[in-house]
Amino acid sequence: MLRTGFAKRGFNPDTAIAELNKTVPLGRIAEPEDIADAVYFLSSDAARYIAGTAVQVNGAKPVY
Questions:
Q1: Domain boundaries along the sequence of the chain
Q2: Is pLDDT of 10 > 80?
Q3: Cα–Cα distance for residue pair 14/51, rounded to 1 Å
């Protein structure tokens, strides 16, 4: 799960986010910055030897 504008429409976002946070092993849903940090790393020289893999940025909650 990623916190975006969805949380602002039609229901109490604080309650919804709190409930979603309980379902993620790391304790919270992703912020946009969490995804951006992974993209930044993968586009950096530090990731120069990474090829052909899927990197899951999911807070340890598999999404199938």
A1: 1-64
A2: no
A3: 39
